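Why Molybdate-binding periplasmic protein? Reviewers of the renewal asked for a concrete example.
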Amino acid sequence: MKSTNKIIIAVIVIIAVIAVGLYASGSLGTSDNGSGDNEVNLAAAASLKNVYDEKLIPMFEEQNPGMTVTPTYASSGDLVKQIENGLGADVFMSAGNKQMDELINKSYVDNSSNVKFLENKLVLIVPADSDANITSFEELKDVEGTIAIGDPESVPAGQYANESLHNLGIWDDVEPKLSLATDVTAVLNQVAQGSAEYGLVYSTDAKSTDDVKVVCEAPKDSLKTIVYPVAPLADSQNNDATAKFMEFLQSQEAKDIFVEYGFTIHDE
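Here is what the prediction returned.
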């Protein structure tokens, strides 16, 4: 009996030692260096998908072993709704100041951490094989066919298109021809696939495929500068990784990648 008790005690001691070791190494329980602290949940406008997926996320993860970036892409307006409904985002990068300001006004983002970071251009595109005889935004009032734009209710690219077309005085003429898409990538795909004869997208989106061609840029005086702000969320649970990611985005090598993909660095 005494021998059995000694064995039981020895087993309990061994289990306790193993458990303590696992806890100290972060393999059991909660640790300051747990995997959660090493993950950055990125909520980014759909027009940023290519540059992040193809270059920036792999670059950041290579430079920071053990850290990962998990992206969610959608229209900036949809991302705001997702964040308000509990999306666990650490960093938000919008294709417009309006959406960032909404989160600042509701205390999801601290305005002091908001960086007005990139600029883009609004362009008119047609399918690559199109023989449409059009050279300006103003001529859209006379064309036949479908004009795809992002839904102005939630898509910044659509809001910029709305602004430009109104300021050019042709909104009433083009509105019956409009096809409203859920994000700017959907607009690009409609034109690339030929389901829309014309589309208004960012220049960076047009640059991402050979299936469309750019007709022209929106007249500069028809809309405000297109700015992409980026900021950490105030309630981010992954502070160290988030801070490293924000620092990385503003590094020269990251800025060079953004420029490579057609963006301009915003200069305040």
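Residues 122-217 form a domain with the D-Maltodextrin-Binding Protein; domain 2 fold (CATH 3.40.190.10). This is the kind of structural detail the renewal will allow us to pursue systematically.
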